[in-house]
Fold each of these.
Amino acid sequence: MKSVLKLFNKSNQNYKLVQNLTIKQYRFKHIFRDGTTSNLFSFSEFQQALKTKYIGRCFIYRLETSSTMDIAKREAEENCPTGTLVLAENQTKGRGRKGRSWSSKGVGNDLYFSVIYHVKPENPLELLKLNLSVPVAVVLAIKEEGAKDVGIKWPNDIWYWPNPKENAQKICGMLVDTNQIGNSISACSGVGINVNQSIKFENIIDSHDSNLKNVAISVSDILQRKVNRELFLASICNKLEVLLSYSFEHIMSMYHEHDILYGKEITIYPLDTQNKPYPAKAKGISKYGNLLVELLDGTGIKELIAEEVSIRPQKQ
């Protein structure tokens, strides 16, 4: 399968388009001011492990950018191929859901990327399937590395929760932005994964609750070893392309299988701060991808929209 690589220069004024690449194995190092080094992403190693037809076949790489989503949006507007992948070693303005900031300082260690899709307006279900398929692909790749007790925290974060009596810890966050472009809808899926940076006691990624300490963890923290980023990202792309070929019902079933909240008591934080947080029991997701919860006051089942609430697993 032929691939296309865009390599941006430092000033971001031009890019070099390379087609029909002759694959050679090079690995560049980033040298920090203190003299330490970090391995940069190897496109050739990634491509050798890639089994897809379209996801990741057009590859845009930056050492640093404000956000991969910014580049993805621009590329989508220029009608880039579906499956175009934008990867950056560092983001200066990485963001998560509801505009929250995302710590993106793991140069040579973590993965910050966006994937672009073009969907016809008459197939809105494809957008929902994409929103469910991305976290499933990521959690499958993490489990394939050997991590256990990992699952999806609605709507699409990946958490590590080995002990229900302790706080769950966040490995990965993602969001999907959509825009109408001509006769199609572009969907940019942004993903940030803590892969090799040891952040167990360093960063607080989600600042919704200032009392949350050590909420973040990396895959290497869990496995106690380094993870090959190139093979790991290729695994995610390979799995995602297969998942997107499945029926929506199949994807719903797989999402449910890896739902880390199902059956557990959670705390729901309304975005309107005038309303107090309240407890409920998670009961899976609806056919629209919304969270179903059983209210503990006995008033029944409620359907929650991601834009309206934030949730936390409770210690059991």
Note: Confidence is low (pLDDT under 50) at residues 8-37, 203-213.
Amino acid sequence: MRFNIPALPPIQPQFIVQVLLTLAASLLTLRLGAGLAAWRVANNLEKPNYTVVRRLPISPPSRGNIEIRKYDSYLIAETTVDETSMRKAGASGFGKCAGYIFGKNEPRTKGIESEKMAMTAPVRSVGNAGEKMAMTSPVRSSGSTNSSGKTKISFVIGSKYSLQNVPKPIDKSVQIKKVKEHYLAATSFSGPPPSDEKISTSREAIVQTLQKEGIRVKDKEETIVYGYHDPVITPNFLRKNEVAVTVDGSSVQ
């Protein structure tokens, strides 16, 4: 017995295009939804306390303003990376500091298990901008580079901890340090983790602005970079980055 199976009508190109557009729109909606959720979570994280002392328009070609801030003291978990590029160092050092925050630590009180600590912001990078940094192909986000070719990356530790009760890192390359009260001149911008060229250009604009105002830079080589949002889930247009230098508080009027 034979069955006559009717031929299926040909699939029209317009139908394929419509399906692909619908799929792309759905994926974009999911991506933006997840990114917005991550952005909101990051914005609610605990951050170091500071007071804005002055606001100054930044020197061209940079855009925006500079905030002169007075920071209270706070604790950081810091690691040093053998890398002159602050962006590359951030990618490498992030994991070590995050590991400490998420449980690779030893409580000060014996008999208590390791502690998963609350996330804070920003990720802090500190480096040396004595020379123009090379362009590279990202969290104190704070990282540090110095003349020896090393960069310091650190996470801010929540204010509920002190040097007496903060858990000890299991990884010996992570150290707990106290950042004393200080003044900082910072400029903010959105986008992906900044390239070394962007960091260097922003620092030069900050320094030029401070010189015009008679405000003294405390360390002529150090550069601080803060990252407030993750570089993967949060869309770049929602990400907040900052480049900053420490300043002499007695020169701030």
Note: DSSP finds three helices and twelve strands in the chain.
Amino acid sequence: MSSAPRPTAALLPPAAYTLYALYALYALYTPPPPPPPPTLKNSQTMAADTDAPKIHGIDTTIADPLERIKAFTALWQNDAYQGFDTDLVRHRLRVDSYTPPSPPSASTPAAPATPPTITFTLTIPASYSNRMGNLHGGAAALIFDVCTTAALAPIAAPGFYSYAGVTRSLNVTYLRPVPVGSEVSVVCEVLHAGRRLVTIRGEIRVEGKVCAVVEHLKANIDPPPGEGRRLVRGGRL
């Protein structure tokens, strides 16, 4: 008794096997496509983004100089801003006092008035220290940068440092160590304010002793009065 013949599979032409092998090699050695690049926000894209944080300036409508300084430092409370100086301004720095400029004396009427003085206070935390347990030099420069910039608030006007300028140079001289936990005073005064450049001096003091001094030169970035806001890198004025 003979059995039924077994069905045979249809054979593909040799060219089909060649194409299949080439496709397998292509799939094996071809790298996957790269991920799309991250979306970076520049001044143009931020200008069209209504949720982008704005670069706020000094409120020149506030007449009281001390309140104007406090209003300027309050801008750091905006949760949309997460800058390098956030911890310092939000949680450490306190606006202590403002001393107005003194007029020329009767004996020397031609002498310039004493510049206004703004004093800030803070307690140095361990996170601002160096390996020796003293205030880190970079942290001191940050403190000076913020405080001397805020010192511009009393003299600001539309077109005149109402956006607090940008740093051109920040020269710090360190005289004494400032141990962690020290209560320090940062005393700032505007030495000279021209149309384009302003010079501010600051001192970090501990118990009346000067521990560091700074000379901060800033450039005015305000648009001319009446021109309105303009784009700047990283945000909007």
Note: Confidence is low (pLDDT under 50) at residues 40-53, 231-237.
